Amino acid sequence: MSKVEDFLTKEEEQAVVEAIRMAEKETSGEIRVHIEKSTSKVPYDRALEVFHELGMDATELKNGVLFYFAVADKNFVICGDKGINDLVADDFWDTTKEKMAIQFKAGNFKQGIVDGVFSAGEQLQKYFPYQEGDSDELSNEISKG
Question: Could you give the CA distance from residue 30 to residue 65 in angstroms, rounded to a whole number?
Answer without folding.
Answer: 6
